[in-house]
Amino acid sequence: MRILVVEDETKLANAVRRALQLQKYAVDIAYDGQSGLDLAVGESFDLIILDVMLPGIDGMEICRRIRREGIKTPVLMLTAKGRISDKITGLDTGADDYMVKPFSFEELFARIRALFRRSVQSPDPLLQVKDLTLDPVSFKVERSGKSIKLSSREFSILEYLIRRKNTVVTRDQILSHVWDYDSDVLPGTVEVHIKHLRDKLDTSFTVPLIKTIRGFGYEITG
């Protein structure tokens, strides 16, 4: 899962990024409204955490604009304003949820999980391809009933491939979705992680799941 955090309080933004990264999310940060809007419109995210009071363009206006662009990414608003009228305004602009500062990370994680569950078409968030199951909420992966332990990057790559099953995904698409925007990623990083995934997912099983489409990228079919 890739999350955009738009927050001008540098200390809070960086703390949220560290906390989310420990939860296996890829996180990009924008410290002002214009940068946040540019990222929200120009990149693909699974969730946007959006502060209301921002320099340049405020969070309410960012939310309005991305909805006008047809972007349906779930938006979680953050604000120091706790009045009911403020919450109603935020939700009416197109936000999906609303949190008042200060907040606990435990509550933030719970709200994120709820938004992810809501954004899935089926009420069951479990993803499945053949005999492989992946739970994006509990971060559990099983194949033929056997539990498989993955690193955060491996999990994110696998989830990205499953959500786009029967579609060829390029290396650049994986890089942009799984790694932070400002990450210093070496050439061959994706290939190394794909190899590790294959070692864990395919070595002990008859049918391989991850296919290399030479010259294009990778695909999971099912």
UniProtKB/TrEMBL annotation:
Limits of the Response regulatory domain: 2-116
Pfam families: Response_reg (PF00072), Trans_reg_C (PF00486)
GO biological process: regulation of DNA-templated transcription
Keyword annotations of the record: DNA-binding, Phosphoprotein, Transcription, Transcription regulation, Two-component regulatory system
Top-level lineage group: Bacteria
DNA-binding region (UniProt annotation): 124-222
Sites bearing 4-aspartylphosphate, chain numbering: D51
InterPro entries from the UniProt entry: CheY-like_superfamily (IPR011006), OmpR/PhoB-type_DNA-bd (IPR001867), Sig_transdc_resp-reg_C-effctor (IPR016032), Sig_transdc_resp-reg_receiver (IPR001789), WalR-like (IPR039420), WH-like_DNA-bd_sf (IPR036388)
Residue span, OmpR/PhoB-type domain: 124-222
Name of the protein: DNA-binding response regulator
Organism of this sequence: Candidatus Amesbacteria bacterium RIFCSPLOWO2_01_FULL_47_33
Organism taxonomic ancestry: Bacteria, Candidatus Amesiibacteriota
